[in-house]
Amino acid sequence: MSAVERSPPLLRLRDIRKTLPTGRQLLDIEALDIHAGGCLLLTGPNGVGKTTLLKIISGLEPPDHALVDYRGTSLAWPAARRRYRRDVIYLHQQAYLFDRSVMENVTYGLHHGFRLSRAQIGERVERALELCGLSHLAGRNARELSGGEKQRVALTRALVLSPRVLLLDEPFAGLDDESRNRTGFLIQRLKSEQVGMVVTSHELLPLAGIADEHLELRAGQLVAPTRTVPRANPARRPRNNETHGHVAYFDMKVGDETG
Amino acid sequence: MDGIGEATLRALHLLVAGDAALWNIIGVSFRVSVSAILISAPVAVVLAFLLAYARFPVRLPLISTLQSLQSIPTVVVGLLVYMLLSRRGLFGDLHLLFTQTAMVIGQIVIAFLFVVPMAHGVLAAADRRAWETARTLGAPPWRAMLTVLTELRFGLLAVAIAAFARIVTEVGTSIMVGGNIENFTRNIPTAIALETSKGEFAQGIALGLVLLVLALLLNVFLGMLQGKGEMR
Fold this sequence. Notes:
The structure holds 2 protein chains of 2 kinds. By secondary structure, chain A is an alpha/beta fold. Chain A is about 30% helix and about 20% strand. In chain A, a hairpin with a 2-residue loop joins strand 9 (about 215-220) and strand 10.
C-alpha cells in the first residue's frame, strides 16, 4: 500500500498459536508484521482473542507457540521476549494508573534501565506532560482523574519511554469527543515518530487517516476485514510535519462524508 | 463487685505510677511480638505474592494446606517449637527454650501461618493490570512485585495488624516455650493467666486494660486505613 509496508517489518511474529485451558484453539496466526511508523488496525467481535494477541505480542502472556523476528534475529517466543519486551508497550483498554501522582505515574518506566539523571528524567517527563496537555494535572493523584484523562496519562506514561512498538487495546472506548480527539492526535504523533502500532478498536472513524493496514481476527486467524476504515481525503491528508491538535477531528469529518 | 472496683483502681494506680514489674511485662510483650511480626510478615507477603502470581506445580495444594493451617491452635505451635528447641530436639544445642528468642520463634510461626493465606486473599482478588502495567513499562519482576504490594498497601497492612493482634494476645505458645519467667519471658497474656490463678486481680486488670487500649488503637488505625483505601 505504501512505502512503509515494503520495507522489512520492525517486528514479525510467525506461527502464533494459543489454546485456551478449555481446549478451544483461540489463535492460529501464520504471520503478523509490525512496521516502523505503521499502524495496523485489528478488529473482530468480542472474545475473539484480540486482547490475548496483543498480550502475546507484548510478552505479557505466553503463547503455546510463536516465533519472533526482531532486529535481525529469529527466536522462539520465550527467548525473544527478553530481547524485545523493553521496546514494546501494551496499553489496557481501561488504563491502570498507579495510586500515586500523575507525575510519578509518567516517571515510573524511566526508572528501569534508562540510566538517566534525576534532572534528565524530570525534563523528559515535563516535556511529555506538556505535549499531552497534562502539565496542570501533574501533582494530582492519578486515581482522581476522569476516564479520558486517565487514558491520556497512560499514553503519556508509555510515550515518555520512546517505545518502538505500541499496542493499544480499544483506546477510544468510553471516551468523549474531546478525549477521543486528543488520543487520536497522540496516536498520529507517535506514528509520525516512527512508532509501530497495533490498535484494536470497534470504532473505525477515529482511526481514519491513521491506520494504514486493517485486518480482522476471525476464528483465530487474521483475514481481510468485512468493514473498512473510512478513507481520509488524500489531498488533504496531513503530512508528518503538519500534525497538530485538529488532525483527528478533521479526519473524522472527512470520514463522515465519505464513509 | 467491690473487689473488682478496688482492684481496677489499684490497677490504674500501678499503671500510672510506672510500676517497674508491670511495665517490664508490657515491654516483653511488645519486644517479642514486634520482632516476630517484623520478621515474619515480609516473608509471608512475598510467599503470598508468589502463590497468587507465579505458576508452579504444587501451587494449588500448597494454598489449600496453608489455608487450613491459618487457624492452627497456638498450643500446637507451642508444642512443635518446644519439641524442636528442647534439649533432645533438633535445635536443642542452641539452648533457646524458655528465652524470649523461643517466644519470638513461636510467634513468627503463628503470624506467618496467619499472614500467608490472608495476604494471598488480598493479592488474588487484586487487579492484575497493576502487574501487567508495571511489567510492560519495563519493571523487572521484583520491582513489579514491589509496585503491586505498594498498590495494595492498605489491605496488606490491615492483615499485618490483625496478625499482630493475634500474637500479642496469645497465651499458648508464650507460656510453653517462654515459661513465664519473671522479668524475662513473662509477657502480658502469661502474666494475666498467672496473676488471676493467684487471686491477684489488680495486675491482671491493669495488663488487660493495656491490651484493650491497644486493641482499640489498632482498630481505630485500621478504620482510618480502610477509609483511606476506600476514598480511591
